[in-house]
Amino acid sequence: MDAVDYPTAFNPRGDGYQSPAGSSSGSAAALAAYDWLNCALGTDTSGRGRRPAMANGVWQFRPFHDSISLSVLCKTYAKFDTHCVFARSLNILERVITSWIPPPPIALSMSQSRSYRLIYSEDYMSEADTDQMKIIDAFVKNAEDMLAATVTQFSIRDSWKQSHPPDTCDDIEEYLDDVIRKTYYHEFYHSTDDLRKLYSGKHQGRPPYVIPFVQRRWAQGATVSTAQHEEGTRRLIVYRTWLHEQLLGDNNIETFMLLPVANAKPVYRDEVLPPLRSNPPWINSLFHQS
């Protein structure tokens, strides 16, 4: 991981030199390292809470967007930014969640006749290797037996081709081409306009020194026009609405979707990772958040 003013947090797992992953890595690494720490808070926009949880071997909960006030959060992409919480124990995690998120006005009853469905995304499973898939398959089988659930395999690419919304092409890769740059990177860049202006004004016109990861995103976001941003946002909303209807359209069924965060393998803290992912945008977990 890149770092400038402070060293990257040390991940205590494995050989001690694994990457802690993501911008909430300090919270996850601290929780993994110190047994006197029960929980830690972080933020999650595009996986920067989920990846540290995976890398540091702790539980993480990302609440539904806007279920907790975001008024004091430093935003990078307001449509996806939210808080998250880490814990080593599910019991602790549950206690934090129930005290953190206000209960609904009317308590929801758990009917014995409630139906459950597990969505098994074929598109995402290409991320996992053979050993990881064995663990995922075992987990799905256990969940299926416990909930008496129906397991449904789902291909985003194929489903879009068969039932894409009106006035859209049938190729989802073409429809969402460059949407990440036009939406997320654009707002990521402009969320720090004031920082660049203030810093430059106090340092003889010099821009702030930032890590290569931020430099790349700023450079891409700066090239997006207002019209491009609006069109990218419109397409993202169309896709989100379609996906929600495909997966969660039946209110009589409690639906869970299983998504691996990444391929579970060693990633060293000094390893230089590719600047851009090769996956198409509809595979990127950024576009499967609420």
From TrEMBL:
InterPro entries: Amidase_dom, AS_sf. Residues 10-94 form the Amidase domain. Gene3D superfamilies: Amidase signature (AS) domain. Pfam families: Amidase. PANTHER family: AMIDASE 1. This is Amidase signature domain protein.
